[in-house]
Specification:
- There is one protein chain.
- With 372 residues, the chain is an alpha+beta fold.
- Among the domains are: 110 residues, no CATH class; 127 residues, 2-Layer Sandwich (Heat Shock Protein 90), CATH 3.30.565.10.
- It is 66% helix and 10% strand.
- The chain is rod-shaped and about 130 Å long.
- The two termini are 41 Å apart.
């Protein structure tokens, strides 16, 4: 904006000088002829019209050229005519007309030898053609500069599109590799679990094997959905699947209670719905790893603006016997699940807090209640 503010006074100054300087030249060079003085000043005043119509401005310069004092104004008009980038033959015609206007009085009223006539015609044609050629070259340079900028912009856009395509192809390749490698092993787990359920005579073993097979199939389906290889978005990772998630945790031995006062009552956007599911899923996974045997309460509440997810658990209640026989869950050293979950919630405009409470641990998430 400041560049425009600075260039506008400059353009005004150049326009004033383009009219004023030819007029001053006429006044300083006037040869006592009233006709030459008047036509020269008219030619200078006519330069005001050069932006609107350079041809009209040049026509007003023709009497001044005939009078001998219109050359300064004609230079400006011819330069502007060249900047207008008219057809080449039109430019040749206008330059010839200007030269003829200046030559006619000389050839009519003066008797010159052929050599002087040829020299005079050459000089006048050069004088009339030079500003036109200069104007045309400047206009061509400006047009080429604009074309180069557009070409550069198109090239940059093409390179950016190629880079995006390359990244997309690489992501697709990685997704296929993950699916083929991990999916193969998860499928084998499901097959082995099904075989164990079919061959074992122990009811508890069969039940556990069936549950493992179901979890393997669920993991495979979620992996395909996450990698974009599923035919459509899975409903099993939405807020409406939270009761099944809780029931599955209960069957695995987690003492969890669900209190849902919001998510089942409204149609959430897909992003918020999946984030709510992941919050509860991550909380139950952490309870199983870090607080086995603890009582867990999952609460989902909301108002007109926010959906609140709170997962509280008490102190772990793992028996000494389970520890002694080495059946305690492997708690690991802490992963990046909460960090990734926090980033997912933050990208949806929400917040995620996880901290110890008086009785155990609490995970609290607040998400905008954006309905689809």
């Amino acid at each position: 904006m400041s560049g425009l503010a600075e260039s506008r006074p400059r353009r005004v100054l150049l326009d004033v000088l383009a009219v004023l300087l030819p007029a001053v030249a006429v006044l300083l060079a006037q040869n006592g002829s009233t006709w030459a003085l008047v036509t020269g000043l008219i030619a200078s005043a006519g330069l005001v019209l050069r932006h609107w119509s350079p041809r009209v401005a040049l026509v007003l310069c023709l009497p001044g050229l005939a009078g001998g004092l219109g050359w300064a104004a004609a230079f400006v008009a011819l330069f502007r005519l060249g900047r207008a980038r008219a057809h080449t033959w039109w430019l040749v015609g206008w330059v010839s007309l200007a030269a003829a206007s200046a030559l006619a009085p000389v050839l009519i009223w003066q008797s010159l030898p052929p050599s002087d006539v040829a020299l005079t015609v050459t000089v006048v044609l050069i004088a009339a053609g030079s500003p036109t050629v200069i104007g045309t070259l400047i206009a061509t340079r400006a047009q080429l500069t604009t074309s180069m900028r557009r070409l550069q912009a198109a090239t940059d856009a093409e390179l950016s599109a190629k880079a995006d395509t390359a990244r997309a192809e690489e992501r697709a390749r990685i997704a296929r590799e993950i699916h083929d490698a991990v999916g193969h092993h998860v499928t084998l787990i499901a097959v082995e679990a099904a075989a164990l359920a079919a061959t074992s005579a122990e009811p508890d073993v069969r039940e556990s094997a069936i549950r493992v097979r179901g979890l393997a199939k669920e993991a495979l389906g979620e992996m395909r959905s996450t990698l974009g290889l599923a035919a459509e978005e899975r409903d099993s990772t939405s807020a409406r699947a939270i009761p099944e998630l809780v029931a599955r945790a209960q069957r695995s031995g987690v003492r969890v209670t669900l209190s849902d006062e919001c998510s089942q009552a409204v149609q959430l956007s897909s992003g918020v719905s999946r984030a709510v599911y992941r919050v509860v899923q991550e909380a139950l996974t952490n309870v199983s790893k870090h607080a086995p045997g603890a009582e867990v309460l999952v609460e989902l509440t909301g108002d007109d603006d926010l959906l609140r997810v709170v997962v509280r658990n008490g102190a772990p209640m793992l028996s000494a016997r389970a520890v002694s026989v080495g059946n305690a869950p492997d708690v690991g050293r802490g992963g990046s699940g909460l960090a990734g979950l926090s980033e997912r919630v933050r990208m949806l405009g929400g917040t995620l807090d996880a901290a110890p409470s008086d009785e155990g641990f609490e995970l609290r998430a607040e998400l905008p209640l954006t309905r689809s």
